[in-house]
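Supplementary Methods. Inverse-folding protocol.

Structures were first reduced to a discrete structure-token string of length 316. This string, shown here, constituted the complete conditioning input.
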């Protein structure tokens, strides 16, 4: 038993329902079960094959494909699905949530949660959005692992008039999962994540796409001689296409603003190369190296070669 497990005498949640059993949903299920965070855990997914696999893995007490039934007795419902599905799923589950239930999510974009759910939100249901800033490039029910959220940030974005008690429950749920929790507005979240996550993914998708389309260099050469830099981009560019399509469609203005800044800085870099400004390049690369150092010092990354990712992730 680890420190977090032994600390918990009683479950924090009576019934937890997780909708969407992919990387994040299955990681929550593994962790919630391991840390005994809920007396009863229900999982649901639109795909029957995923539901069948979830039964085999055995990280939920019940796997119920019908989401209306899955959320019926839940005290906390966490949507772990692409953000483009929120309006449809929100409308489908809302009449079946019990009074006082907390509806949360893990989506990588936050302002759109309110846009999608406010029109159908019941007054006796508490919407407390959350975003665990943790993940891998893998998808599906086998991709999850219990330690995914340990020492990672989870950003909660409750509305200004959100219930303090419901907000505190979501905060303590994520803290019990091992995450560090910070609250901010949905708009601020979207701006910060645009530069720390969304634009980097776009750059990775773009550079891998450019390499794939090059005519002067064959694809087999790109793969054969892929040095560390390109390989690291391919890892990010292997991320789930549905999830990332929805991220860009739902965080348009912040991503476009950050892309504008990025393009200006790229133009400045082009100019330095063209003019042979070695000092300019050296100074920038020295500053960026220091940023990496501080991320490692904060425990958000490892200094191990290859990001320490050679080993398969630990299962619960
Ligand atoms: P994933 O591995 O692709 O899992 C998503 C699961 O949800 C799939 O099993 C999918 O089924 C299912 N699903 C889709 N639409 C559904 C619906 N209407 N009803 C029920 N189930 C549905 O994706 P993920 O990486 O876990 O991402 C889920 C959410 O977490 C996204 O909102 C994403 O922004 C957020 N997030 C992801 C990461 C990351 O690194 N991946 C990190 C933080 C937050 P099908 O496969 O059949 O479509």
């Amino acid at each position: 038993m680890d420190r977090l497990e032994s600390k918990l005498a009683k479950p924090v949640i009576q019934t937890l329902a997780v909708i969407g059993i992919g990387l994040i949903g299955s990681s929550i299920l593994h962790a919630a079960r391991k840390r005994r965070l809920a007396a009863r855990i229900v999982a649901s997914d639109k795909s029957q094959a995923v539901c069948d696999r979830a039964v085999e893995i055995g990280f939920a007490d019940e796997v119920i494909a019908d989401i209306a039934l899955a959320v019926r007795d839940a005290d906390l419902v966490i949507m772990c699905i692409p953000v483009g599905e929120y309006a449809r799923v929100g409308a489908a589950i809302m009449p079946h949530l019990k009074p006082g239930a907390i509806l949360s999510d893990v989506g990588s974009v936050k302002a759109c949660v309110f846009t999608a759910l406010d029109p159908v939100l019941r007054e006796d249901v508490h919407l407390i959005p959350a975003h665990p800033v943790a993940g891998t490039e893998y998808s599906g029910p086998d991709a999850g692992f219990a330690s995914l959220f340990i020492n990672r940030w989870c950003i909660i974005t409750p509305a200004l008039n959100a219930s303090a008690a419901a907000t505190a429950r979501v905060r303590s749920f994520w803290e019990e999962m091992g995450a560090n929790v910070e609250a901010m507005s949905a708009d601020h979240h979207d701006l910060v994540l645009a530069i720390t996550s969304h634009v980097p993914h776009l750059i990775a998708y773009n550079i891998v796409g450019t390499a794939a389309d090059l005519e002067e260099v064959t694809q087999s050469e790109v793969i054969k001689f892929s040095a560390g830099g390109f390989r690291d981009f391919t890892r990010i560019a292997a991320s789930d296409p549905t999830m990332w399509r929805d991220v860009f469609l739902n965080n348009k203005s912040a991503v476009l603003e950050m892309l504008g800044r990025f393009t200006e800085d790229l133009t400045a870099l082009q100019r330095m190369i063209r003019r042979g400004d070695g000092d300019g390049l050296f100074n920038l690369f020295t500053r960026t190296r220091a940023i990496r150092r501080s991320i490692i010092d904060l425990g958000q990354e490892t200094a191990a070669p290859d990001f320490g990712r050679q080993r398969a992730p630990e299962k619960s």
